[in-house]
Amino acid sequence: MLHHYFILLMLLLIATTTLTTSLSQKQAELDAVTRFQQYLRINTAHPNPDYSAPVSYLNGLAKSIPNLRTRTLYLTPNKPLLLVTLYGSKPLLPSILLNSHMDSVPAEPAKWSHPPFSAVKTDYSAPVSYLNDLANSIPNLRTRTLYLTPNKPLLLVTLYGSKPLLPSILLNSHMDSVPAEPAKWSHPPFSAVKTEDGKIFARGAQDDKCIAIQYLEALRNIMEEDPFFKPVRTVHICYVPDEEIGGFDGMAKFVESDEFKEMNVGFFLDEGQASTNDKYRVFYADRSPWNLVIKAVGVPGHGSRMYDNSAMENLMKSVEVVSKFRENQFDLVKAGVLPNSEVISANPVYLKAGTPSGDGNFAMNMQPSEAEAGYDVRLPPTVDPDLLKKRIAEEWAPATRNMTYHIIEKGPLRDYLGRPLMTATNESNPWWAVLKNAIEVSGGELSKPEMLASTTDAKYLRQLGIPALGFSPMKNTPILLHDHNEYLKDTVVFGRNKGIRVHHQIIEFL
Ligand SMILES: *[C@@H]1O[C@H](CO)[C@@H](O)[C@H](O)[C@H]1NC(C)=O
Ligand SMILES: *[C@@H]1O[C@H](CO)[C@@H](O)[C@H](O)[C@H]1NC(C)=O
């Protein structure tokens, strides 16, 4: 009997061990698959393969394996070659060379069932790895990578101050960019071609990879001037994912994290916009986006009949009312009463109605029973959102006309105390004076602070009551964010007394 129990116990033990082994083996397989996907997501297709990203990725991967040595050779500029070596116990014997090319043939995205580099979602591992290496090449910077959302890392770079208990400074840059249509660009949008007159063409050049690099290069310059430099307050830089799609998996989660709370952030500096003249622009508020859908229902009927209250008629009445409102707001802008960013915009983005006829068209002799319209609505923090809701309920989608509406608020409108999301730009905000001074000392001049017509991650900080300003020092530059042929001139950022110098001064003064 005892003997049987013993065998049973042994069997159980073996089974458990096998189970644990197979579980950790399974995990290892999953991890390897993830790394394969990450590598696939790096677009190295011709004609313009970006070799820095795969080299950086593979280099990081090789370094995560014990005993491997890596070297990067630049036999041709911009075409690095990565060499990974595991030394043998008899290094004088002929060695083994395993080869893999990093480029791939082009793909025609339109003909694929999934985007060809999309094991994509946006690939954040490459920029995090790149920026991490860049930060680590500067003395005294500490880096941490936070995974608040799987596959969406956030890189945190820190320079500790001499008085670490004082509120810290947080400089922000988002790593993502909006898409680009390569066929409409004069240079491939991710090739960062620099023309003879110094224009660097790339999606993200203005929005907002310029500040990403300026923060670090300003710190590098500071350290080169004074290797013992220590700011009074701790300075953090965060590189966040997903700003262009609302920041829900990026800044919104970050400000909720323990890491953020421990940072005790006193002042936040984020992206701004280019200025077409000689003065820098600074932004103290964003407009908040609403996605508004208005929907009408009505009795359906034959296309030949005239009757009241069809869904189409009900919707069209609303479309006219909204258009009139939009026109009035736009008139204020045209008359110079208010800037674009301080009125409510309500732009129609889609119309949906009709009875499908089955062949991809619509039944032309049928008045449909439902019709809807979608609007991109933007509210400056100066307006009362409840008043606009009342207007929507009473005039844009009145129940008396059998209409309903749905609003998706894409972000907060008021801070935790119910105040409009605006950062003061007067003496009531001590950070403002320091920022202004830093800009002036570096030879720059500021234009009147503005609201931003669109929205940024700064709203999440303002919501917590933390002063937050948008500032990308680019002057005498056309505003090209989200446009074809987005570019930025080298001297605007790296020239004497230019963007980088301004950030240098800001870090030293704050
Ligand atoms: C609203 O719908 C009801 C029920 O279908 C209909 O009787 C009424 O005429 C409609 N009113 C308007 C203004 O569309
Ligand atoms: C500073 O600006 C804020 C916000 O615009 C305003 O409420 C406040 O009254 C101003 N304070 C002073 C001292 O001007």
Automatic annotation (TrEMBL):
Swiss-Prot/TrEMBL keywords: Hydrolase, Metal-binding, Signal, Zinc
Pfam families given in the database record: M20_dimer, Peptidase_M20
Binding-site residues for Zn(2+) 1, renumbered to this chain: 174, 207, 271
GO cellular component, one term: cytoplasm
Cofactor annotation comment: Binds 2 Zn(2+) ions per subunit.
Biological process, per Gene Ontology: amino acid metabolic process
UniProt signal peptide: 1-20
Gene3D superfamilies: 1.10.150.900, 3.30.70.360, Zn peptidases
SUPFAM superfamilies attached to this UniProt entry: Bacterial exopeptidase dimerisation domain (SSF55031), Zn-dependent exopeptidases (SSF53187)
Sequence positions that bind Zn(2+) 2: 207, 244, 482
UniProt cofactor(s): Zn(2+)
Catalytic site positions: 176, 243 (proton acceptor)
Domain Peptidase M20 dimerisation residues, every copy: 291-395
GO molecular function list: aminoacylase activity; metal ion binding
Protein name, as recorded: N-acyl-L-amino-acid amidohydrolase
